[in-house]
């Protein structure tokens, strides 16, 4: 009886323990900037029209599961916070969190406010809308050091297909003080290496211990942040002491003087990182707000494809496929870098006096202050807006470079490329007159060509001779190749060509020879489908006049080599 009671109590404590954890760990969802979301929704509609339903569904899945895991912490005075990783919220514009109830439904809290981040430690802190306090209790932190071999629990909502599912993992600390320079400078912090299960979507979730089997309380010892793909059960968490220090720093009051000093420190660090002659757009990307990326990202992406070096274009595309928001951030950063460099490839910025004001933004609930400052770059001046949010300053806009200016620049480039767009034509037909500048007779010419590309064609021409005693009617097989030069109203096709001519319709003479051509075709009209051609033709012919006797035998052949220059002018159309 006693043993059964103890087993029941152990099961009850365990169930209570895990149930409490689940009620305080939620699905943290990030919503992209409206400009980014609109782009993907438009792309989805295009894929649906093309019958690509699976791709369209993948876009829905991508937009619906972006984010990670977060958990509740309640401060000493009852303040409610959500803790997570910075990389979970870095691409977001708005945030919400969902807590799963026992019946499978979710309690949803919208419009979380990002109040602090640490990019180096990969930490982020959010609070509820209007500083609401829906939780009286959160997950507490453990104040004792971990040892190798300690049992730990991971909690979160990793993705399974298009769905986020609750997962509680169990494992052991395999290295309590791991130093991994590729992930985090050991001078900033060591990491907890453990074997509790971690999957995509667990980021930002708690790593916990349960010190006593008789105590239902779980304590946070870290935040799950990384997973080693190349090794089995190698998962890494940032330790609790660093999380506590981070929260203390980000929840402390910041005076206007400290805020303003941070702004000038930020400007100095931003400018210092631009002195390198090598690419600095990754440095610029660290300072861009989600708004400047959302407004300008896809226009900048077009400019990257249009004029960026191949190495930059590949890097931006790689980033985009891994994280679209990061790829767009790189694109905007490269556009800014390219615009600021002078002809020698240097960037030199001079900042004017800043006007810093406290703000309350409807578009960014995290914004607390705004700074307007004039930036001079190689005799060009730009009005910049920086925004203070989540404890750091971000570049919001550059008047005369981003926003409407970038959109106009993109539109001009699109118009230019559209005007220069060359569409291969399938069929050319023209006719005209070839004036002779030699003993060869002038001819009337009709030609038909099959387009091989936008600037090459293969076809047949018929020359009707004005003096058949000198030269019979000729049929020529001709190949032409040249260069298409489009403009907004015309398309010019300078070309060179060669061919073989014969007189298949003349029973009294045999003629065979070659010709060379050089000229230009001008295409005009609403669709540039009307043509005018001017060409010089050099023809070399071997003509054999054949006299037949009564017996039908050929006699007295008179061979002659005829050559000469002709100028052709004619009109036609193309399809």
Q: Strand order of the main beta sheet, please? A: 21-22-23-24-26-27-28-29
Beta percentage is 35-45%
Shape: elongated
CATH class membership of the largest domain? Mainly Beta
Return the average pLDDT rounded to an integer: 84
Specify the biggest β-sheet.
8 strands, antiparallel, barrel
At the fold tier of CATH, the topology name of the largest domain is: Thrombin, subunit H
Provide the number of structural domains. 3
Structural class of the helix and strand makeup? alpha+beta
Spans of at least 5 consecutive residues whose pLDDT stays below 50 are 4-16, 546-559
Structure description:
The chain is of the alpha+beta class and 575 residues long. The protein has 3 domains: 14-249, Thrombin, subunit H; 256-419, no CATH class; 427-574, Porin, CATH 2.40.160. It is built from 11 helices and 29 strands. The strands form 5 sheets. An 8-stranded antiparallel β-barrel has the order 21-22-23-24-26-27-28-29. A 7-stranded antiparallel β-sheet has the order 5-4-1-2-3-7-6. α2 (34-49) crosses α8, α8 packs across α10 and α9 runs antiparallel to α10 (324-340). The model is unreliable at 4-16 and 546-559 (pLDDT under 50).
């Amino acid at each position: 009886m006693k043993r059964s009671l103890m087993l029941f109590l152990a099961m009850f404590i365990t169930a209570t323990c895990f149930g409490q954890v689940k009620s305080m760990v939620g699905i943290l969802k990030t919503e992209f900037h409206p400009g980014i979301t609109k782009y993907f929704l438009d792309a989805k509609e295009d894929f649906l029209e093309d019958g690509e339903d699976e791709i369209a569904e993948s876009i829905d899945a991508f937009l619906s599961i972006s984010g990670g895991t977060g958990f509740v912490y309640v401060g000493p005075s009852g303040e409610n916070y959500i803790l997570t990783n910075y990389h979970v919220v870095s691409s977001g514009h708005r945030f919400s969190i969902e807590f799963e109830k026992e019946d499978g439904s979710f309690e949803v809290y919208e419009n979380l406010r990002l109040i602090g981040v640490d990019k180096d430690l990969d930490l982020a802190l959010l609070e509820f809308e209007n500083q609401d306090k829906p939780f009286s209790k959160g997950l507490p932190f453990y104040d004792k050091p971990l040892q190798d071999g300690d049992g730990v629990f991971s909690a979160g909502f990793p993705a399974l297909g298009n769905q986020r599912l609750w997962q509680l993992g169990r494992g052991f600390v395999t290295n309590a003080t791991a130093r991994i320079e590729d992930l985090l400078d050991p001078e900033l912090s060591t990491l907890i290496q453990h074997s509790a299960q971690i999957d995509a979507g667990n980021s930002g979730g708690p790593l916990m211990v349960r010190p006593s089997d008789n105590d239902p309380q779980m304590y946070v010892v870290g935040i799950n942040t990384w997973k080693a793909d190349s090794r089995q059960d190698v998962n890494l968490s940032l330790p609790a002491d660093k999380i506590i220090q981070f929260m203390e720093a980000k929840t402390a009051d910041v005076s206007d003087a400290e805020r303003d000093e941070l702004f000038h420190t930020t400007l100095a660090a931003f400018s210092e990182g631009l002195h390198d002659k090598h690419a600095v757009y990754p440095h610029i990307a660290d300072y861009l707000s989600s708004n400047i990326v959302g407004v300008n990202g896809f226009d900048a992406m077009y400019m990257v494809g249009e004029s960026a070096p191949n190495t930059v274009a590949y890097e931006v595309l790689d980033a985009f496929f891994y994280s679209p928001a990061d790829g767009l951030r790189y694109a905007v950063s490269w556009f800014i870098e390219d615009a600021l460099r002078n002809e020698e490839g240097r960037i030199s910025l001079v900042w004017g006096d800043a006007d810093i004001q406290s703000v309350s933004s409807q578009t960014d609930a995290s914004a607390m202050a705004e700074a307007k400052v004039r930036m001079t770059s190689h005799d060009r001046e730009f009005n910049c807006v920086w925004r203070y949010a989540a404890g750091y300053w971000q570049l919001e806009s550059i008047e005369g470079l981003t926003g409407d200016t970038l959109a106009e620049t993109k539109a001009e480039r699109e118009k230019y490329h559209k005007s220069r767009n060359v569409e291969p034509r399938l069929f050319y037909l023209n006719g005209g007159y070839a004036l002779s500048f030699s003993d060869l007779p002038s001819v009337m010419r009709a030609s038909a060509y099959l387009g091989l590309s936008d600037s090459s064609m293969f076809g047949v021409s018929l020359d009707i001779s004005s003096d058949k005693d000198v030269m019979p009617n000729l049929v020529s097989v001709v190949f032409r190749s040249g260069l298409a030069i489009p403009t907004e109203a015309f398309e010019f096709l300078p070309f060179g060509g060669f061919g073989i001519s014969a007189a298949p319709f003349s029973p009294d003479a045999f003629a065979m020879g070659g010709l060379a051509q050089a000229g230009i075709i001008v295409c005009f009209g609403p669709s540039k489908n009307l043509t005018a051609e001017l060409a010089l033709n050099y023809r070399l012919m071997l003509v054999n006049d054949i006299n037949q006797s009564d017996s039908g035998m050929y006699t007295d052949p008179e061979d002659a080599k005829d050559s000469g220059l002709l100028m052709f002018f004619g009109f036609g159309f193309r399809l």
